[in-house]
TrEMBL record:
It comes from Erpetoichthys calabaricus (Rope fish). This is protein-tyrosine-phosphatase. Pfam families: fn3, PTP_tm. The keyword Transmembrane helix applies. The keyword Transmembrane applies. Residues 32-115, 116-203, 204-286, 287-371, 455-538, 539-622, 623-704, 705-791, 792-876, 877-964 form the Fibronectin type-III domain. It is an enzyme of class 3 (hydrolase). The chain crosses the membrane at residues 1203-1230. One of its GO terms (molecular function) is protein tyrosine phosphatase activity.
Amino acid sequence: MELFVTTGGIAFRILLGFFLISNFQVPFVQSQPGPVGNLTVVTSTTSASLSWTTTAQSNVSYIVMVVEANKTSSTNSTSANVTGLIPATRYTFTVSAVAQDNQTVGSNAIIIKYTKPGPVGNLTVVTSTTSASLSWTTPAQSNVSYIVMVVEANKTSSTNSTSANVTGLIPATSYTFTVTAVAQDNQTVGSSATIIKYTIPDTVGNLTVMASTTSATLSWNPPNGGNVTYRVVVVDIDKIFWTNSSFINVTDLSPATSYTFIVTAVTQDNQTEGSNATITKYTMPDTVGNLTVMVSTTSASLSWSPSNGGIVTYRVEVDEIGRILWTNSSYINVMDLIPATYYTFSVTAVALDNQTEGSKVTMKPYTLPDTVGNLTFMASINSASLSWNPSNGGNVIYKVQVVDIGRILWTNSSSINVTDLFPATSYTFSVAAVALDNQTEGSNTTITRYTLPDTVGNLTFMASTTSASLSWNPPNGGNVTYRVQVVDIGRILWTNISSINVTDLTPATSYTFSVTAVALDNQTEGSNVTITQYTQPGTVGNLKVIVSNTSAAVFWNPPYGGNVTYKVMVWGNGEIFWTNSSSINVTDLFPATNYTFRVTAVTLDNQTEGISATITRYTLPNVIVNPTSVALSTSSISLNWNQPIGGSVTYKVYLLNNGTVVLTNMPSINVTGLMPATSYRFSVSAVAQDNKTEGNNVTMTQYTKPGPIGNLTVTASSTFALVSWNLLNGSSVTYRVMVVGTSKIFWTNSSSITVTDLIPATNYTFRVTAVALDNQTEGSSATIEQYTLPNVIVNPTSVALSTSSISLSWSPPYGGSVTYRVYLLNSGTVLLTNMPSINVTGLMPATSYRFSVSAVAQDNKTEGNNVTITQYTKPVKVEQLNTTTITETSILLSWHQVQGVNVSYKIIVLDQQSYISTFYTSTSFFNVTGLSSGTSFSFNVTALAADNSTEGYPNTITGCTNAAQVQNADCFGPDNNPVLNITWQPPSGSYSEINISISNTQGLYTAFPSNNFYTVYNLKYAANYTIRITTISCGEKSSDVVLNCKTGISSPPVPSGPLNLNVKVITYQTVTFVFKSFSNENGNIDAYAVIVTSDTGSTTPNNLSLTKTYTDYNNKNTDSYVTAIITPVSEEPTVIIGDGTAYYGYTNGVLAATKAYRIAVAAFTKLTLSGNRASNGNLIDTAKSYFSITQFSNTINIPENPAVIGGAVGGTLAALLILALLTAILFIYWKRRSKKLSSSGNTVPFNK
């Protein structure tokens, strides 16, 4: 029979022959198959694939059992597939070799393995901004736990529930979430369920809108987290815009319209949205157009073109009275105004929110002045004095227009004297009040009147006995008629010419004649000129003389007419006799002297004489002696001489210039009716009483006086005066002009002279005298006083002292003492001062004022040319200055709008180095851009008047731009040193320090501007850290720069003591064992090198052992060598030494039977191979690898080779006795062995 015996893992077949001894029969025994080798199991969710190596006996079959599933199957191959398993379930797989008798079973090989869990189902992820909630369904028929991984965040967690919450995520970031079911061995994992999901973006912050009429600029703070785009929805018009920046300009909007803007951050998947940020804003209304104002005296009607866009109301402001009116229409009537008053009307369109306003449109008219009242007229010959009641309302000036001659006069008072008019002329005067803008006129009041006619001149009377011929010089001026009144008899006559003959009068009767020039209105009369005169008496009739030697009786008949007296002249002795009777007796005559008796009827005025009746007797007269002449006036000359000796004579005076003869009884005569300033030649002779006998004549020459100077006027400038007068009628004269009180005397033949070298603002008296050509005969002098004009002020300057006052100053002009008249042209106000400076107060801020300054002489009338000064008052101080939107490179300033017209603003920016930048704006806000990040700036904001130079008081505010992030930040963890080296490029701008925070630590580290790197110490090896780098400036933080960093690795820590092995199987050539994995705290273990030594006395391998191979060991070059390099896949790696496999340049050669070995393990966090042996391939480079080596294990003894045992058994067969004994022993052994195998199994080592 055959018997199979196994010992030391070797199966032996023994053929036994049985001998019959005492009827005892020994059975034939089949030897047991050896155990299968290298059993491996690969599971899926519901099946397992088993494979193994055959036993030494090849002619066997195999029984495969799955204990928990109660499954058994047989196979002749070295593999099997078991199906119908439950996922995630622990199964014990056994494989046993069966001999050909199908009964004898070898030792079974056992492996315990979990089937893979099924995939989790229905994985869903719901994200928030910084977390994610995962849920899933449990795989079928599974008792599992789950591994939840967030790939990008390097987060891993385990859970036994079907949900998980992941926190600490970054908003708007894409994350890959995987969930894997893990069996209860915590090693067997199922298929992962994966979903990629974005976290919800954060809500945008600080959403603001700056609106214009047709556009709106939205800006916001970007949310924290990943990159996003922004969706901007204009709700009201259903418009959607997309942008990658944190601002957008929305155009094509309607003015004055409410719009709701929604801004939403959207992640890069264009699906995941953050919460909406919503803001509602009106666009600015459009500016009203075509604003017009129609004013009356107490109201103003405003109208305008409605602004484009939405519905608006209009705010109408009347600045000067602080009145605000509202209207929904495009017109309004403003009542209760004051006439002739300056008003500022502004119209602003206001949106329906009653806050959003368009630009203001302004007009500045005056109301119409009121009509002047009670216009009255007082006329003279050459002038008219007008007066009226002042118009109600504001200050006005009056325009007085002389319509007929187109003359316009202006006055501030309610009366005026209009000169240089023509007498007897009709003038229409129009008076209108004019506002201070010199444009706005009230209704005019008109009056038409004649000037008084001039008095008729040189009224003369030529009377006869029954008539009177009157003549006169026509007055200057317009056409007139003449009313001639014979007062005594109440007769009125009219004539258009300058003479009249009045008839039907009584001789020798006194009549008073009045002549008055009357204007063509037959109402306006000049002054009358009156002359009283008698008509001539009639001539006495029938004159008879009865003479004697000493007397003469004279008789006559009385003439017809009124009462008369009779003048009887005796030309001879010069006697005159008067009598009321019609006769007279003349006595005491000279003998031998011719006498002429003349009888004349004389009226009761003793002047008006009738025609004389004469009878003559003559003696020859002598020549006159001592003739003299004197110019009595402009039209008369007095001639005088001594009476000649002898009888009575008369004198005949000849005016040789024109042949006129004048007779006189006196040795003198006044010659009248002459021309002024004319040379006259007279011849005077004595004439006997016969009026024929004449003596020799005597000739005299004499000038009449020149006439008086007329219409003397002076027109003065500052240093000269033009003196002019009317030229005198008559012969030529020269004119002497004296400046009284000075040595200045001038002569001229013309009617004017210019006097130079005068002192400004000085009173001068000018005296002008006409002088005849004899340079002796002078007319009456005319004198006039006049101040020279003051000089123009010099060096005028103006300074805005405050918001309500302006200081004016100047240098006094050269010349006499002056005062100064300062006109505030804006309002018509007049100020007087004796000093060359003045402070004008009560003004409006930021307003342009025009001043006119002129010097006035001491007469307070004579005014020099003015100088105009324009100056703005200071604007008020900017208030409510704030910094609003602040970025890294800009700061938005805002302030309250300053009162004033066209006020602008100057912004001065000063940084820490006092660098100055200046900006200008007309709005009440300004975004200062181009600033350095993290820098403190001072902003001075000053209001500027419209002249862009007059500044108000500055207001200052300090602001700091946001700190910028560091640039190009990076981190590096060097090996063999548990630190992180962090580097960066400095942020733009300024900063005080950089803060560095590290996750999983309590540290906050600070770097200063001199360093662009920082090393963090005392960290863990191979650890992930989140680095947040924050720039600090002005005490504020920048947004974080986030780095995900990992420290380097180092040699792993070594377990203390000898290597602790769990030896599973030992054969004569191999050893199978399990050991605990090394700690990963210094980095993941990449590989293990198994070191074998036959030097049982050695405790710890040296590093050189890592470079020794099995070949080196066989060649006796080393006692220690590397037999295998394995990659860890579990917490307890299984190693088989001696299986012949190759690892890089190392061979896992068989061990020597009966020899003792010790084992050590080198763990590598970094394994570097070098190719320094061409024959052996790559070996471990100990200089470049990071590793630690355990101490050697306890000694392992390798058993004897089974072949040696088989030879010993064969020798015993020679002796039957020994064989029988052996058979009995073997039988007993077999029985015991079978019992032992049925009660326990044997584990087969494996290598994962």
